[in-house]
Amino acid sequence: MNSTGEQGDGVRGMFSLDSTVPETASRGFAAFRREWEAQFGGRFRMPAFSPATTGDFRVKSRGTKMSDVAIIALHGVSAVQAAGYSHCVEDLVRMHVVRRGALTLGEIHDRGERTVSAGQFLLRPFKLAPRYEIARHTTVKFLFLPSAMLAPLLRDRIITGPTDSAEMRLLLAHTNMVQATVSDLGPAGVRIARDTVIELVKAVALRRFDDVEPLLAPALAQAAKDLADTCLTEPDLSMTMLARELAVSVRTLQRAFAATGESVTAYIRRRRLEEARLALTAPSGSLGISELAARWQFADSSHFIRTFKKQYGLTPTDYARSTGPGAHRRDA
């Protein structure tokens, strides 16, 4: 369990909990409730979880608060059920993003249900906290957002869609970065991170974003990296392909990467070399140099060997040998 926060001004709060292992499962819910109340304060009410949930609360969770924005990333090994509050006005905009499994969302007084499946999101204003059920082995991200800034745009609409749209790729890349780095941000950085969340949620609602907005450049660069990491073995992976998938111009993507100190092409080459290096020393690995070169889209074995040596100071064969006993034999 890790937690930290700025309790003085309430601007920032964060926690990270894992109750999926046997030694922590028995006190998992109590720890979750304690951290939620300490880090999120009175602005965000914790759901009223069912007795079945509190008795078997095996989840990995990470919470981040930035003033009037909160993000909860949760992976539940056990099922999670929460009842809404019929007596307490919430007046928040919520986004539910399901990466794996399924979440069933119900209105107060059973005014209909909606299931959000893997690879989908749901965005809408809520005057009252909804009830919901999360199936076992579900990975979901909750965003709690200020109604004043988003409700006029949404006009009580329910907006749904896939998580692989350009706008959602940017939003997810940004929220992942925020949850990984918020403890290192100063007050100005927290404000910028919070404002970027709002702008990207607006972009999701409008199904477009301002690709020249400097505020969004870090999210765009990270979204491109995340997408590239899933396509490293594909021959058509390129700056042009990434720009097309993210609905921006090549020039815009180049500008976003410029601030990172690494070009798109250099990032792709570095990541392919990293994966090839890991494959060289994998216990079950059996690919030779020529096969590795082909898999990671190098022109030929000679090009792969030269590039690898420039990066790591050894040829692939020498690198594999240097890892110690049990290294697999490689072709030259």
Element layout with pairings:
Elements: E1 2-5, E2 12-18, H1 22-25, H2 28-40, E3 48-49, H3 51-55, E4 59-66, E5 69-76, E6 80-83, E7 89-100, E8 102-106, E9 113-117, E10 120-128, E11 131-134, E12 138-146, H4 147-154, E13 159-162, H5 166-181, H6 187-206, H7 217-229, H8 239-245, H9 250-258, H10 264-281, H11 289-295, H12 301-312, H13 316-322
Antiparallel strand pairs: 1-2, 2-4, 3-6, 4-5, 5-12, 6-11, 7-10, 7-12, 8-9, 8-11, 10-13
Helix pairs in contact: 4-6, 5-6, 5-7, 7-9, 7-10, 8-9, 11-12
Quantity of strands, as a count:
13
Fraction of helical residues: 40-55%
Low-confidence stretches: 5-9, 327-332
**CATH topology-level fold name of the largest domain:** Jelly Rolls
CATH domain class name of the largest domain: Mainly Beta
User: What share of the residues does DSSP label as strand, in percent?
Assistant: 15-25%
Number of structurally distinct domains: 3
What is the number of helical segments per DSSP (H or I, 4+ residues)?
A: 13
Distance between the termini: 47 Å
Order of helices and strands: EEHHEHEEEEEEEEEHEHHHHHHHHH
Q: Structural class of the secondary elements?
A: alpha+beta
CATH level-two architecture of the largest domain: Sandwich
Mean model confidence by pLDDT: 88
Radius of gyration (CA) equals: 23 Å
CATH-level-4 superfamily name of the largest domain: Jelly Rolls
Major sheet summary line: 8 strands, antiparallel
Oligomer: single chain
Shape: globular
| Biggest sheet: strand arrangement | 1-2-4-5-12-7-10-13
